[in-house]
């Protein structure tokens, strides 16, 4: 990895409670974020995502450990160092946090005014930013007359005003409908690709991560429980919490009533075949599904599942009903499991079918 632009080392943030031991929102996090990518921080409410990310722009300081951003240790900064850091880290929010008494242009130019830019320099920069986010026409409008998506684009333009090296987005699309969410996510990706800004996106939605992130950090109870490239983490989640996020989205193995219905309709042997994942090749698995059953004289019917793209690569699972002589079906399952992961759907956990040697 390139030199990380953000580095957490044993970073901990405990909030004092009126009585008792206090709440440890972030608990001993060691994490490096390389410059130039889009990292998603995912977790359920209360996992510590906002606190972790607020430590990047020193809105929160660690109560133990350190956070180093762009070469600066946040807890050792002077007032001036803090101002410099905040100039390098922009942030957008779920509720947009726009100034209602100022126009779109006034909102976008506000951080520049605070930073002491001249009126003329501000005018030029604001025009450039509004063009980038596609809001040039609405420069004179007030926030009350903007849609949610437009408000968030104003938020993004404002956050980019001082050309930050890092952009933080805390649930920036959670208040938006799916269509607007896609637009805002596409804009965040442009910010990353065209301006080279390192983007950190907080979300509780796996689709947001799947849509734009290169890497993902999964948090639970203040800890980072899993992190890595999006494809690797989501195609083979190791931790139960991560599995809960990808469940459904990857059209996983049928269970419960779905499985009961499948069994009623399909009396043959049901097996679920993984397509893609860190240890299997999607194309190989797809070819095997098409070829292997027929080679064993087994009739194969796809009865459940799906394939989608994750980080631009296929991943998913297909459940097949295999019909034929039981020995031939077993030989077919054995051969399939030499190409990819094959499981037998059961009411509870899946039973792994080991390839026979
Ligand atoms: N300023 C605060 N004072 C006290 N407790 C806080 C404060 N901020 C966050 N917490 C607590 O820390 C935990 C993590 O919160 P947060 O970082 O907001 O999680 P998330 O963004 O994942 O929902 C929660 O239990 C929350 O109640
Ligand atoms: Mg939060």
UniProtKB/TrEMBL annotation:
Xref: InterPro entries: AAA+_ATPase (IPR003593), ABC_transporter-like_ATP-bd (IPR003439), ABC_transporter-like_CS (IPR017871), ACT-like_dom_sf (IPR045865), MetN_ABC (IPR041701), MetN_ABC_transporter-like (IPR050086), NIL_domain (IPR018449), P-loop_NTPase (IPR027417)
Question: Does the keyword section mention Transferase?
Answer: no
Please verify whether the record's keywords include Membrane. Answer: yes
Pinpoint the ABC transporter domain residues: 6-246
Q: Which Gene3D superfamilies match?
A: 3.30.70.260, P-loop containing nucleotide triphosphate hydrolases
Q: Which GO terms describe its molecular function?
A: ATP binding
Signal peptide extent:
none
What is this protein called in UniProt? Answer: Methionine ABC transporter ATP-binding protein
Identify the Pfam families for this entry.
Answer: ABC_tran (PF00005), NIL (PF09383)
Which classification does the entry list for the species?
A: Bacteria, Bacillati, Actinomycetota, Actinomycetes, Pseudonocardiales
Q: Which domain of life is it from?
A: Bacteria
Q: From what organism does this protein derive?
A: Pseudonocardia nematodicida
Keywords in alphabetical order? Amino-acid transport, ATP-binding, Cell membrane, Membrane, Nucleotide-binding, Translocase, Transport
């Amino acid at each position: 990895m390139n030199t990380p632009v953000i580095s957490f080392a044993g970073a901990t943030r405990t909030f004092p409670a009126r009585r008792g031991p206090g709440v440890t929102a972030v608990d001993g996090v060691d994490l490096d974020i390389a410059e130039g990518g889009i990292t998603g921080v995912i977790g359920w409410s209360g996992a510590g995502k906002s606190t972790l990310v607020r430590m990047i722009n020193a809105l929160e300081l660690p109560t133990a450990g350190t956070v180093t951003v762009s070469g600066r240790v946040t807890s050792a900064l002077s007032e001036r160092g803090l101002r410099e850091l905040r100039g390098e880290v922009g942030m957008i929010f779920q509720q947009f946090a726009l100034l209602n008494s100022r126009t779109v242009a006034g909102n976008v130019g506000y951080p520049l005014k605070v930073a002491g830019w001249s009126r003329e320099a501000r005018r030029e920069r604001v025009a450039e930013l509004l063009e980038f986010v596609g809001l040039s026409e609405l420069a004179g409008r007030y926030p009350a007359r903007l849609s949610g998506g437009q408000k968030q684009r104003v938020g993004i333009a404002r956050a980019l005003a001082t050309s930050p090296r890092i952009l933080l987005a805390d649930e920036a699309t959670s208040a938006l409908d799916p269509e607007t969410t896609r637009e805002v996510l596409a804009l965040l990706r442009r910010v990353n690709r065209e301006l080279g800004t390192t983007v950190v996106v907080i979300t509780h939605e796996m689709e947001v991560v799947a849509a734009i992130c290169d890497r993902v950090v999964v948090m639970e109870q203040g800890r980072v429980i899993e992190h890595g490239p999006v494809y690797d983490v989501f195609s083979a989640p190791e931790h139960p919490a991560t599995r809960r996020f990808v469940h459904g989205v990857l059209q996983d193995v049928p269970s419960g009533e779905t499985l009961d219905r499948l069994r009623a309709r399909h009396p043959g042997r049901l097996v679920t075949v993984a397509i893609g994942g860190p240890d299997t090749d999607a194309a190989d698995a797809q070819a095997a599904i098409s070829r292997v059953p027929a080679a064993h004289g087994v009739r194969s019917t796809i009865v459940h599942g799906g394939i989608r793209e994750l980080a631009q690569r296929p991943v998913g699972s297909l459940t097949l009903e295999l019909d034929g002589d039981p020995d031939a079906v077993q030989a077919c399952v054995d051969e399939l499991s030499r190409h990819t992961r094959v499981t037998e759907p059961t009411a509870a956990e899946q039973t792994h079918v080991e390839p026979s040697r």
